[in-house]
Amino acid sequence: MVDGALPAFFIVAAPGGIGFEFKLGLKSGATALVLAVLAAALLRLVSMGSSLWEIRQRWQRRAVEMEWTLPNSERIRPISIVVVVQGGREQVVEAVDRLLALDYPRFEVIVVSDGSPDGTLTCLREAFSLHPTSRIIQKSIPVQTEPTLYASTKHPRLTVVAKPETGREDSLNCGLNVSRYPLICALDTQVTLDADALIELARGFIENVTQTVAVSCLAEFYGDASTPSGSDIRLSADGIAPMYAPMQRSVSAAADQRPLDDLQRVDRATLFHVQWLLRAGVGNLAMLPGVVSLLKKAEIVAAGGYRTGYAADTLDLLLTAYRVRKSEETRRVLFLPEVIARIAPLDSLDETMQARATATQESFGIIVRHLGLTFSGQGDWRARLALPVFIVTVLFAPVWEWMAVILVDVAALAGGFTFDELVALLTLFLSIGLADSLGGLLCDEVSNRRRRSTGEILHLSLAAITHAVTFRWMMGLAQLRGMLAYISGRSIRETM
């Protein structure tokens, strides 16, 4: 028995025993995480490059199309814009006014008042001379309550729907039932559309009416530099004969450009280009507020209507539609690189982190629910790969980076890494961050989604360096919070 105990004693006491195994385990774990971070970074770079190539190809096609897709009374399809309001009466009237002034021959605006407690409905009635009305409503989607309809004597295109508070998703479905047109655009009041935004969104349906099911774009911040012209078409009064006028979208610069706004711009550009597969395969984005989508009403009905009440509800709709459609059906989804909508940046760092945590929780739930699309054989290869690539490159990558940095530091303190190796690894993490931040900004410029001056580019380049060193790490913590909230079943919205 003594002889059998001696080897175990010497393994514990000898140099290089348990201490060596502990250091080796730490170093191996840290190395594995570093390799995972590198793999995710390479996938992001490939996505950015693919995004850049795709957008430039689109611009080249647009240059030689000679505007053959002219909007006319036979080919253009009418649009129903659905807006849900839950308060904010000061902003609602202005937002509805802007929508009614859009340049498009046939559209309607449906404002759904979801039990707004601050007199929003009264404000709308006074501003637009509303009166009660009735019409046949096709109940394509079940809703919880019967709405009351109001029409406007000033604007025949406007319909206001009053109902008790039942949530955003039920309000959207109510607006969907009230709508009369085959294309649906669900909007938030915080998003402002350019005058010709509906023309740009409808272009995809004009090019291919039968197969196109969704066309989307991403709203950009107010105060950004002027952006390239989207369409030179201006409709005549009857919507038949196009009138051409050279156009440059001009956005007035904000009076006070805050550093936080520039950090959000860099972060937004990076997330936009990294999600190339999700844009190209599914036709939508995740974790980015202000995505504007135009969808076939039949597609929404086939998917069972709006279900989540999330900002990413359109992404959930499109993924659901993929699952309920037959695999042999050809579906065409488009994501426009043109900037045709605006949204205000968030006001504080705390609000930005709260928004990212909430978006991560919601997107994580949607992605997990639809992960089976990868193995279903439906959609093209981009749609099938979009979800797992998104999980690796966007959802998990920031968490892996935090874990890798912590484990590398712990392994270095335990003697697993030399000082030179530690410096090299930390430099690698910094380089990955710079590649992400500067890469997203570079893709935005080279793809011609922007027209900024040299001074503006240099200013944003400095913001990209700050983003790589600090902001992206804080957003990584926000994403970790969102993922933990989803796992625990606790809603971040309830604590905001």
Automatic annotation (TrEMBL):
SUPFAM superfamilies: Nucleotide-diphospho-sugar transferases (SSF53448). InterPro entries: Glyco_trans_2-like (IPR001173), Glycosyltransf_2 (IPR050834), Nucleotide-diphossugar_trans (IPR029044). It comes from the Bacteria. Keywords: Membrane, Transferase, Transmembrane, Transmembrane helix. Pfam families: Glycos_transf_2. The chain crosses the membrane at residues 29-53, 385-410, 422-443, 455-475. GO terms for molecular function: transferase activity. Residues 80-138 form the Glycosyltransferase 2-like domain. PANTHER family: GLYCOSYLTRANSFERASE, GLYCOSYLTRANSFERASE 2-LIKE DOMAIN-CONTAINING PROTEIN. This is Glycosyltransferase, probably involved in cell wall biogenesis.
